[in-house]
Amino acid sequence: QIVVNLLSNALKFTPEGGAVELSAVPDRGRIAMVVADNGIGIAPEHLSRVFEPFWQEENSLSRRHGGAGLGLPLAKALAELQGGVLRIDSQLGRGTMVTLSLPAQDAAQNAAQNASAPVEAEARSAAFSPSAAS
User: Fold this and answer.
1) DSSP 69
2) Rg (the chain; Cα; Å)
3) N or C: which terminal CB in the chain sees fewer CB atoms within 10 Å?
4) Residues 20, 74: Cα–Cα separation, whole Å
């Protein structure tokens, strides 16, 4: 959910022809995921407010695409619940880079659980399907 929110914002505020990049690297027992874009960026005076619920910078793109102003506050809260940190670096007119840093062990366990969940659900479904009972 965190990465989906970050990618959604990057895509929303990057004009057509711009670029959005997602990368992940190990970082001293943590996993750092970075969403970077060359979109409109965030004014320096507004950076301190981006994690406030319902706050949005007023510009033509935010008015055109809407939103409730909850994506970044939710992403930050979810990151912190997992022992993570969310950091934003931005330059107005040049783009934004959001770094999500999570403990590597927890991230690996969560990924393994999420990856196996559909397989387990399919196995249970197959075990109880009418065709399996025949």
Assistant:
1) S
2) 19
3) C
4) 21
